[in-house]
């Protein structure tokens, strides 16, 4: 069982995600309510889907009568980046208890926090940290979604601009990670390659290419760093 100190540490590390997920979740709940779908929909989608950007997209799919094939392809395109996240987490999650939940709960923000975990922790402590961060972020999102749906039923809200909140949260986590580490090369590579792919392939197709090039670049960088210390 995690100790109080471990829970406190995980909570403090997830505070930026807490503030973002509560607001984002509320935005999702309000937007869902504005389309005539109530709190049970908000709860079920957050518990079983738990994919912030995809949940926003799913509102239009549900209310627009999209077919299963359309929904499947859209989900694949929106969440294809998680394939690359998963590949990079194979070693970290090897032998970890509760691995299915950790895989399910691997959002952008959770990935950022887990990858930024201090290496001086022993293996068991790191595993507990992975679980606590994943579980806390999961609960934040569910809570925000339910609150938003309940508020949306009684208070008038303008839903204009709500979808930008996900971008704002990503930028917040990016800046926090930048300030917490001295090695900025991976972040610089990610930004440069993403912008380059955006210019080359356009906004509709750049994401997959950017993920591929970023993964290759980081793999080469990791290999180079490994040889340096051999």
Our measurement of the CA-to-CA distance between the termini, rounded to an integer number of angstroms, reads: 37 Å
Task: Quote the beta fraction.
Answer: under 5%
Residue stretches low in confidence (pLDDT < 50, at least 5 long) are none
- Arithmetic mean pLDDT: 82
Structure in words:
The chain is 75% helix and 0% strand. Helix 8 packs antiparallel against helix 9 (123-152) and helix 8 (108-115) packs parallel to helix 10 (165-180). The protein is built from twelve helices and no strands. The longest helix has 30 residues, at 123-152. The chain is mainly α.
Quick summary:
With 230 residues, the chain is an all-alpha fold. The chain has helices spanning 4-13, 15-34, 39-48, 52-63, 68-79, 81-88, 99-104, 108-115, 123-152, 165-180, 185-201, 206-228.
Detail the topology: elements first, then pairings.
Layout: H1 4-13, H2 15-34, H3 39-48, H4 52-63, H5 68-79, H6 81-88, H7 99-104, H8 108-115, H9 123-152, H10 165-180, H11 185-201, H12 206-228
Which terms summarize this structure?
0% strand, mainly alpha, 12 helices, single chain, 230 residues
């Amino acid at each position: 069982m995690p100790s109080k100190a471990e829970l406190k540490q995980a909570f403090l590390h997830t505070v930026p995600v807490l503030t973002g997920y509560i607001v984002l979740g509320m935005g999702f709940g309000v937007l869902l309510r504005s389309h005539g779908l109530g709190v049970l929909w908000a709860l079920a989608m957050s518990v079983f889907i738990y994919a912030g950007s995809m949940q926003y997209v799913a509102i239009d799919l549900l209310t627009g009568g999209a077919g299963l094939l359309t929904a499947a392809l859209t989900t694949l395109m929106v969440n294809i980046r998680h394939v690359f996240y998963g590949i990079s987490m194979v070693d970290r999650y090897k032998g970890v208890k509760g691995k299915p939940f950790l895989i399910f709960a691997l959002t952008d923000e959770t990935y950022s926090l887990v990858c930024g975990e201090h290496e001086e922790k022993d293996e068991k402590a790191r595993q507990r940290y992975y679980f606590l961060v994943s579980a806390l972020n999961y609960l934040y999102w569910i809570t925000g979604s339910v609150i938003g749906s309940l508020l949306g039923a009684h208070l008038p809200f303008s839903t204009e601009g709500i979808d930008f909140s996900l971008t704002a949260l990503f930028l917040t986590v990016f800046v926090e990670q930048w300030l917490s580490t001295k090695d900025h090369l991976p972040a610089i590579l990610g930004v440069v390659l993403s912008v380059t792919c955006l210019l080359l392939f356009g906004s509709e197709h750049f994401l997959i290419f950017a993920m591929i090039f970023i993964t290759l670049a980081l793999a080469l960088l990791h290999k180079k760093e490994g040889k340096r210390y051999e």
